Amino acid sequence: MRRCIYINDSDLTLDLYCDNRISNRKYTLLNFLPKNLWEQFSRFMNKYFLLIACLQLWPLITPVNPASTWGPLIFIFAVSATKEAWDDYNRYLSDKQANEKEVWVVKQGTRTRVQAQNIRVGNIVWLRENDEVPCDLVLIGTSDPQGVCFVETAALDGETDLKTRVIPSACAGITSELLHRIKGVIECPYPDKDIRRFDANIRLFPPFIENDLCPLTINNTLLQSCYLRNTEWACGVAVYTGNETKLGMSRGIPEPKLTAVDAMIDKLTGAIFLFQLVVVIVLGIAGNVWKDTEARKKWYVQYPNESPWYEFVVIPLRFELLCSIMIPISIKVSLDLVKSLYAKFIDWDEEMYDPDSGTHAHATNTGISEDLGQVEYILTDKTGTLTENKMIFRRCCINGVYYGNETGDALKDVELLRAVGCNCPEVIKFLTIMAVCNTVVPLKSKNGEVCYKAQSQDEEALVLAAGRLHMVLVDKTGNMLQVKFNALTLQYEILDTLEFTSDRKRMSVVVKDCQSGKIILLLKGADEAILPCACSGQQIRTFVEAVEQYSQLGLRTLCLAWRELTQDEYHEWSLLFKEASGTLVDREWKIAEVCQRLERDLEILGITAIEDRLQDGVPETIDILRRAGINFWMLTGDKQNTAIQIALSCNFISPEPKGQLLLIHGKTEEEVSRSLERVLLTMRITTSEPKDVAFVVDGWALEMTLKHHREAFTQLALLSRTAICCRVTPSQKAQLVELLKRCDYRTLAIGDGGNDVRMIQMADIGVGISGREGQQAARAADYSIGKFRFLKRLILVHGRYSYNRTAFLSQYSFYKSLLVCFIQIFFSFISGVSGTSLFNSVSLMAYNVFYTSIPVLMNVLDKDLHEKTVMQHAQILYYCQAGRLLNPSTFAGWFGRSLFHALVVFIVTIHVYSDERSEMEELSMVALSGCIWLQAFVVTLETNSFTLLQHLAIWGNLVAFYIINFLVSTIPWAGMYTVMFRICGQPAYWVTMMLLVIVGMAPVLALKYFRYTYRSSTINILQQAERLRAPYLPLGNMESQSRTTEKEVIPMSITLPKSRNSVYEPLLSDSPSAIRRASGVSASFDVFNASPSRLSSTYSRNYKSN
Amino acid sequence: MNSSGATTSSATSGPSDTVAPRRNSKRPKYSKFTQQELPACKPILTPGWVITAFTLIGIIFIPIGVASLLASRDVVEIVYQYETECIPPNARNNKLGYIQDPTTNKNCIATLTVPKRMEAPVYVYYQLDNFYQNHRRYVKSRSDTQLRSPTNENDTSACDPEDNTANGSPIVPCGLIAWSLFNDTYAFSRNNTTLNVNSKGIAWKSDRNAKFGSDVFPKNFQNGALIGGAKLDPRKPLSEQENLIVWMRTAALPTFRKLYGRIQDDLEANEKLSVQIANNYNTYSFGGKKKLVLSTTSWLGGKNDFLGIAYITVGGLCFFLATVFFVVYLFKPRPLGDPSYLSWNRNPAGH
């Protein structure tokens, strides 16, 4: 079935389709509560707590007041529901803003202004320049006489170059007045999310009927959220509206990412749950046995002789409830809280602020900061990520004369300026090629300035440079091109554009000089593609030398050439070219062959050298992160040579003696497989040597290996610390991420362009660089940063701290819950295994939610090592990667500690408060305050750095405990009325507390000291080094400072030279779309990315032939 | 999305100009907190610090331990276990039958010798062993609201099975705790003169004032078929039934003492006290012990050596640890923070 849309006919299509109301909301007012609750209860922990809370409603078994579970549970639910509601409200506001935006729509033959949400399918929508497209439209008219308009699709696919859209041929030539009354029918498929396909037909009704049926493609559409650019107006018929647009359909809710730490916590929770079950079963059986053997003798208990059928589960269930606090209800809330603070710290970080673009780092996903500290693999894009993607024209060699060698900038070279000034013909020709031979679109802004839209950064650089040398590309309308040279305006007619392909490695245009009528071929391309075509007489040695010289400087070189054509030659060739362009089979190859005929006997004019600088600090960043044990893979759409060059210049791989590059290549499947085997073998041999081995694979070989030799490739991936994958497609990037994830590695993908989005979404952590290729990657990513160099701070500082803090927080949460729970279990042994709770409900609730969570929340300020130390000894990240701070064995340590502390508290309390003092309320408060004191000292001992806030939280919490309990003790109807005053008035209480703290903490301190000094971990050593040698920490120390070892004094700042490495890249075009085309992804890709020049040239040809 | 796309650059002006105005607005606010740069002190466990700490603990703990031990030793305590003694030898093979037989005379006389001079007030306790006042079924079986005010007389839902009488009227005070009230009594005499035991003010003042109403009178108490413990005088309000109030403060341990009264006279050493015990309370069915305790008190409480011994032991252990650490530190010093200990400095290949 397809949908039929009657253009501009409200009677026929009124109610069939939804209106244009956009809704990104998850909830409505009505379904918020049930839906949100359902979502929350889909988590295991919440189900568990709900079960416990429900069981507590049964008075026979509940040891405490049900409020002690219901309170926190409702609080927790309220917090997350509020957060959801707030997010949803913001989404509602932004939807509302979009929905209420006013647009021009034709109603009853007149243009009226309506709100965007009221657009119906079939309406004709008018757009002005720079308007956002409100829904998916089929273009039917533009201000351009040829029916062309330009759109920016950045919001859709992240590409910022302008795309050309044309009206369907059926609508050609309809004046804007007639467009108001146009009628017709569009037959189109049901809404889908494919933004590269639109297979539809349009048929206009009389009097517009031209031919029966006119096919529509994606090139005839304006999709929602695109911007109309460089076109005065355009109008179209709404085909998909509201959430049924292509954008709306492709909007999916991404899967929530689970960090390794979360997974570990879940695992530990599961283990604790099992332990709890064992305890419950054992105590339940023991309780039943005790009941039958002992309790029946106790006449004062009056056990009834006949009991209900469920009697045997009562005691186990009581213990289940008593032990339910083993799994801390507060852990989820605490973790969410600290996690959002970690994210805020990232947002706030001044050192990750990029002054060039004015962006600061941003954590979109607030839940996965710990994972940053556990990254094992980084998969990085190249262009725009490692490099600045900012091409700058630096030097040139014209006719054997070098410009820019002295100053480093040809535009400031006096010689060149003088040559331009005196109209030196070679230089003028050179500049003409720079300005004309490209696919750049000049845009005139209102104040007369000219902006350029270019797909290729290189071309833009050339045009800009030519402009600075007074050859300004002013205007390009259709096939007419205006260049201003000094005061002169030169006009050129573009006859043909011979496109760049990766095989030809060059592009050229055929233009007609309107002044002289001469037909000229202008050419630019890689030296190896152009120099062989030089005309026989020309000396090319100087150019070869120039190319060599420039590439050694790491500049990207282009060779410019020129040839005058005779009329006849051109016409003869033009026919061939048209024929080749019209073929259906092997079109590209045939065109290349035809072009070859023209591109010969060239007059080489010179060489340009363009710089694409590495971003600041890239080599250092890679070096530090590699030292941190992170493996780097570079995934680029670029050529192998370029990729290797960049890899070398940014410390990615080491040059020959130290490092070794292994290539996986081959034309056929067998060759690839043999090559893979060989590389794998070499890799296995060299793993024993301390050698830096990397493998290089290109897109084709990668496809083969992924398809047929996945196993072998996985092994290779495990062996190699570095890999370079060139000419890979976005989906291959994502496949590689998936491959590494399968091997249980934590992966981080970093990129800046739309082509990295899939890899970013696939990886455990996606980092986007908010760069020059648009915001698409940054928006899809979990973290967005301004520059690649911030990655080291993101991982080593934020990731590491987050991991450390969460590791402590989560284990501590279990520790304190277990502590109380163990005391309850011990107490059950002296209370006839009957499931009596020692602590009262208020204390239990406050203990978990309040007393023990505030000090530990302040732990988000804890820093075990100074940031500088971490940067210097990046290897320390290994602790996080290997999960050394949160794993079953560290957890066992905490488990043991809580058991020990529970024993201490219990034994001391029942011995001091025995005989005449063994009153229940008193004893319970003594035991509780013992727990509070111990936990305060545990937090103190485990804190590495104390800020004022932490002191305040730890000791203030202790004071708050007493204040709160004193307050509760003044309430006459409370169970503990006056209890706190009584016990605090006795010296025995304070003596007991002191004993508890020392007995509980002294062994822990002694053990920690022993480990710290004699079995020091790397972190400990660095802490000591930092403390004893760092001049910036002026606190006094008992330890004599003189015992400083002379072996190695650690310099406390990184003083690596700030080198500005440039990149040698002998490739013509480096833009993402060029990459995609070069690697030959798919035809449908090409249609969407069709450059304006190609389209305009085809259309200009059509125009001419008409 | 910024309307001037990212690849757009002006032909005449550099890209830096366009960014300049928004730089300041987007820049994160600087504060020591947001930058995680709050001034912090980072104590590390240096040998000096740790050894000093342990020594200090030793220095503080041993005197406190000695003081507590002395205080505990100063307390004079007479403990008389009587659950067997008070049963006539011929009835000792059926203690349960003896105690449950309402017709037998359960009085017995015991003579206690005061070992040391006991200064007034001398506290008289009864001690029960193996009595689970903390049993869940027992500890919950009370109604605090009912005890507080006569209006809540019917609030007996928690008191099962001693909530209402057979005809449905509420028992005051209800519940197992009150029902099982201890009913042994002691009468002391010295040189054939009665020694007065003051049982006023033995309960917590707060309990008398706030928890047990002065207008709540016992009702239907111990009227059922099964008699638990002591009966209460229905004319006295609960706030004056101090034995009940003491009993209702449930003990957390199965062995506990409860205050019976105070002897306001000094007892001289080697004095003989004669006690007439009414041995009514049934501890025989579960093998519980009953003890009569006379004790003075110190600043730390009753006779309890635990604190003293614990303090001295902990103090000694801390001294020992300090010494061990010191010796180890002297003979096997280890430079702190020596980078040569770093794993990657030892092994160039990495981890």
UniProtKB/TrEMBL annotation, chain B:
Membrane spanning stretches: 49-71, 306-331
Ranges of biased composition (kind: Polar residues): 144-157
Region (Disordered): 1-32, 142-164
InterPro entries in the record: CDC50/LEM3_fam (IPR005045)
Lineage: superkingdom: Eukaryota
UniProt keyword terms in alphabetical order: Membrane, Transmembrane, Transmembrane helix
UniProt-listed Pfam families: CDC50
GO cellular component terms given for this protein: endoplasmic reticulum; Golgi apparatus; plasma membrane
Predominant localisation class: membrane
Comp. bias intervals (Low complexity): 1-14
PANTHER family the record matches: CDC50, ISOFORM A (PTHR10926:SF0), CELL CYCLE CONTROL PROTEIN 50 (PTHR10926)
Record-given protein name: ALA-interacting subunit
Organism: Amborella trichopoda
Lineage: Eukaryota, Viridiplantae, Streptophyta, Embryophyta, Tracheophyta
